[in-house]
Amino acid sequence: MSRKDLSYERYQRQILLRDFGEKGQQQLFGASVLVVGAGGLGCPALQYLAAAGVGKIGIVDDDLVSLHNLHRQVLFTTEDIGKAKAGVAAKRLESLNPEIELATFPFRLTNQNALTIIGEFDIVLDATDNFASRYLINDACVLLHKPLVYGAISQFEGQVAVFQAAENSVNYRDLFPEPPPPGSVLNCAEAGVLGVLPGIIGTLQATEVIKLLTGIGKPLVNQLFTYNALTNESFVFDLATKKQTASLLPKTAAEYERLDYEWLCEGPVSVVEEMDTAAFNACLHEDKTLVIDVREEGEQPEITSFSHRKLPLSRLKENIPAIDANTVVLFCQSGKRSREAAALLSATFGKTKKIYSLKGGILNWKANGKEA
User: Fold this and answer.
1) pTM (2 decimals)?
2) Strand partners, 327
3) Is residue 136 within 8 Å of residue 261, measured between CB atoms?
């Protein structure tokens, strides 16, 4: 679509802004933004970027809409459950603003395709929820010299920053040089999130994109904005580049494509046996089976419908001698930490005990496999 096709009436309230004007609107219309993740952060960011008139928007997401998404992912409805997020989001955005171009990538962004996809866009908005994706996206943007608008949320708090948007600008590895130990930082599936929080943070990310594209205001370059929804406190921290960061970044496309980002963030994956919900329900009636909740104290939902022992992953190693059952089943929220716990116990006991992790975690069991 050519610039002359731009609708004045649609964007009138933006064009009236003294520091924005028709020039700013044309800059948006001639720009392209890639949004990686159409979840809690991606939904509000996508809606406001589309409504603002960004000329081309790319949507990367390989996930399907689920019922537990709907309290925060407001692009989707109950009727969309089971459908591909990228496709549903594109359809809604097209209805919102048919003047813009939408490109969908209904698959996972990997280091094998990221450079090609990101290379097509002016700015990247990271709306992902895991460390492997964040490092992967950051490193690609550094290699391609693309500005990156970062956002993250957990429970009641969120943060926003702008990377790679100026000469000598910080990148994600200046803020977090190394991934945290596996299981030490809970994602939203494990810790929960207030539904309105990603709406706030995702909208702030969209704001930073618009500022970068039009040159208005002062973007969060070399700064980290943090927000607490419970207290309404917000802080802006200055960030600085670090000499050691360069040694952590891939220097070439070939080096980038050889990196294993999942291994970088999760460590070597041990093979553990997982137990499905049907087998788990059956073992609950077996006296010789020990069921262990490896979640941290206070995590919800509280489980009262079957007997189990609470033994947080953070204290598991020191309590291994107290595990005397021959069959042990471990569970957490989503199955991630229980797999890590099962790997630890399997390495300790070898074949002397049968160690299992509840597949999909206790949330999956409550949703799909709970006993009647």
Assistant:
1) 0.77
2) 289, 354
3) yes
Domains of the chain by range and CATH? 3-266 (3.40.50.720), 273-369 (3.40.250.10)
- The whole-chain average pLDDT of the chain stands at 91
Nearest of 188, 263, 200, 260 to residue 226 by alpha carbon: 200
Q: What is the pLDDT of residues 129-185, one digit of tens each?
A: 999 999 999 999 999 999 999 999 999 999 999 999 888 899 999 999 888 776 667
Contact by Cβ (8 Å): 86, 61: yes
Q: Which two tokens stand for residue 69?
A: 């998404």
Place of tokens 């262990």: 292
Written as six digits, the tokens of 221 are 């370059």
